Automatic annotation (TrEMBL):
Protein name: cyclic-guanylate-specific phosphodiesterase
Keyword set, alphabetical order: c-di-GMP, Membrane, Transmembrane, Transmembrane helix
Section covered of the full-length record: 382 to 664 of 664
Coiled coil: none
Taxonomic superkingdom: Bacteria
Domain EAL: 24-278
GO molecular function annotations of the record: cyclic-guanylate-specific phosphodiesterase activity
Organism: Billgrantia gudaonensis
Length: 283
């Protein structure tokens, strides 16, 4: 009894815990304003094919905070998820990414680029998510077949049938799907076949330390084989060295993303990079 009370008291008055709680509350109230105050930014990281030609980008969110500077998504997406703020933030991301995709579609040099957008589970599970994607594609005139929605395995753990139905409705719009962070979830493989997926994305936790532990090689090679057998494209994320890229290519990997090619960049820097790579590949 005394022990339990002691523990509760400790937790209640623990200044460290209290600081964490206060920080979280501040973060959440700041984040609530972030969309309205125009503090969100999209960075873009290139994706390349087997010939190392740029085929598209992934849109990656940043928060330009007036006091704390540029905040990476790992520091605020979890709070946004828990508070459901991710729904309005995700709407902003989708619209901004689609507007950019539409702009690229009108220029010859960039017309073939695809845009990958991360979709959080809560956002995907909104009853009007399909309608939102449809309306956004219409309003921005972005080409649906170049929009790639990145989903994670957690979506298929609780109510896989509902998620599958939503994917099929989205598929009729023409969008594509990538399964992000593949290999890190707990879901069964049996559902893979039954989803209208286009791409598997090998998680960077296997790719970055590829040669440090033979398990990472085994897992990466297996995912590539699995993708091939299911007729899915496989992309590796977190490709940082030539040796990694070559090894993955030998296993039959189709596409790559990582610091070897480029970090996530603000729009102007990305467009400068695209111009350079268009020159060097003679496009
Ligand atoms: P993710 O979708 O798996 O994105 C890949 C992350 O790996 C990005 O981190 C990217 O910068 C990083 N990365 C890519 N290549 C390399 C590499 O070669 N080396 C290293 N060290 N890192 C690499 P970032 O931008 O910090 O994003 C982290 C996560 O935040 C994303 O993981 C995604 O889950 C989430 N996120 C980002 N933007 C959004 C968004 O708009 N909506 C949602 N719901 N989540 C997002
Ligand atoms: Mg992603
Ligand atoms: Mg990923
Ligand atoms: Mg990841």
């Amino acid at each position: 009894q005394a022990k339990q009370a002691g523990r509760n008291t400790l937790r209640f008055f623990d200044p460290v815990m209290q600081a964490v709680t206060v920080r979280r509350a501040m973060l959440e109230s700041d984040l609530r304003q972030a969309v309205a105050r125009d503090q969100l930014r999209l960075f873009y990281q290139v994706q390349v094919d087997a010939t190392q030609r740029v085929t598209g980008v992934e849109a990656l969110l940043r928060w330009q905070h007036p006091e704390h500077g540029m905040i990476p998504p790992g520091d605020f997406i979890p709070v946004a998820e828990e508070s459901y703020l991710i729904v309005s933030i995700g709407r902003w991301v989708l619209e901004t990414a689609c507007r950019q995709l539409a702009t690229w579609a009108t220029r010859r040099e960039t017309s073939g680029l695809s845009m990958a957008v991360n979709i959080s589970p809560h956002q995907f599970q909104q009853p009007d998510f399909v309608a939102e994607v449809e309306a956004t594609l219409e309003a921005t005139r972005a080409p649906a077949e170049r929009l790639k929605l990145e989903l994670t395995e957690t979506l298929f753990m609780e109510e896989p049938e509902i998620a599958r139905a939503t994917m099929r409705r989205l598929k009729t719009l023409g969008v594509r799907f990538s399964l992000d962070d593949f290999g890190t979830g707990y879901s069964s493989l049996s559902y893979l076949n039954r989803l209208p997926l286009d791409q598997l994305k090998i998680d960077q936790s296997f790719v970055r330390p590829l040669f440090e532990d033979s398990a990472n090689e085994v897992i990466s090679a297996s995912i590539i084989q699995l993708g091939r057998n299911l007729g899915l494209e496989v992309i590796a994320e977190g490709v940082e060295t030539d040796a990694h890229c070559q090894w993955l290519a030998e296993q039959g990997c189709d596409a790559y993303q990582g610091y070897l090619f480029s970090r996530p960049l603000p729009l102007d820097e990305l467009e400068a990079l695209l111009e350079v790579s268009a020159c060097t590949t003679g496009r």
